[in-house]
Amino acid sequence: SGIITARDGICLNECIKLLAQLGKHDPENVLLNEKEGLKKQIEEYNEILSRLRGTIDSHDGSGKMLTVEGERKLLDISAKHGDTLGKYDDPYCAIAAERVELARNRLRQLSEINEAIEGEKDRLVVKIWGDCAQIMDRFEPVSAIKPQIRDARERVSNVDSIIDASPKGDEEKIVELWNQCSEHHSFRIFSEEHADGLPIQERCLRAKELVAIVGGIKSVINEQEAHSKNGRLKTWENETNIVSKFKEHRDLLANSSYALKRVGDRALLAKKLGEAFAGLKTSCVTKSDRAAVKIWKEYDKPLSQYESVESLKSNIVDAKTRVN
């Protein structure tokens, strides 16, 4: 029964061994008549296995690039004889089956990654490549798509960094990351993925606008501070510009920690000083002495730095005299 089981299961080498043992103990057994037929079958299977081994050896030679044609040839041999070789009890069958499965996976994942590249599915490209990079070594068609894989990885990395920087209000970092991938802005990942509730592209453009506006306000502030450092009086024109620029973009700036941290307090001070100067000027003109003295007492030090206040100082002295 062991012989029949081995034969039907295509364990032919095992079957020959069992027949040899049977011949020693029962030379007249009818099963011995199958020996020649089994040997012929073994020769046929060995021939198939030899062709498969030859294909694998020539395809996988040291330093050789693996080709799509070669991988498909392995699959073709496997498709014709796979069931038989899967049962045949030659140790090389397991090695061949593993190599055929490797070829199948290579071709499948090459198809998947090409489809992902074509569909601009960057995260899927990165995932597939992460799963199959090792088995794609020396696979000829991969060299043609490696630049696209590299670009997809860079886009994913940039988007992840933008998403990370966004809630921190790191607008300059966002702009830097956006500019790093300037040749890829049309790719789907920048319109389909979001940061702070906005598509990545829109979030980056908002960051660029914020940085530009804040930079403009900062330049006016720096110009104003330069007057003090050089011993000159500050100008109301600059203060007015600070207030008007902030007011013009209030909706954007007031909701930005980046903007508030860099120019928010200074814009508020400019507004307060402007209101104080307007109130002081009106009080001097209308001779509202107590109001003038009150404003001057609160803002005399910062207001004294402005050229337009010089003309009001005599009025302030008079107002003080009348109040006292």
Q: Could you explain how this protein is built, in words?
A:
The chain has helices at residues 2-8, 12-25, 35-59, 68-87, 91-118, 122-132, 142-165, 171-180, 189-192, 200-229, 236-248, 250-253, 257-285, 289-303, 313-323, and strands at 194-195, 198-199. It is an all-alpha fold and 324 residues long. Strands 1-2 form a two-stranded antiparallel ribbon. Helix 2 runs antiparallel to helix 3 (35-59) and helix 4 (68-87) crosses helix 5 (91-118). The protein starts with a helix and ends with a helix.
What is the 3D form? rod-shaped
Number of strands: 2
Helicity range? over 70%
- Spans of 5+ residues with little confidence (pLDDT < 50)? 1-10
Beta-strand proportion: under 5%
Gyration radius from CA atoms, angstroms: 42 Å
What is the count of DSSP helices, taking H or I runs of 4+ residues? 15
Structural class by sheet pairing and helices: mainly alpha
Terminus-to-terminus distance: 129 Å
Average the pLDDT over all residues and give the rounded result: 87
Order of neighbouring strands in the sheet with most strands: 1-2
Largest sheet: 2 strands, antiparallel
The topology string of helices and strands comes to: HHHHHHHHHEEHHHHHH
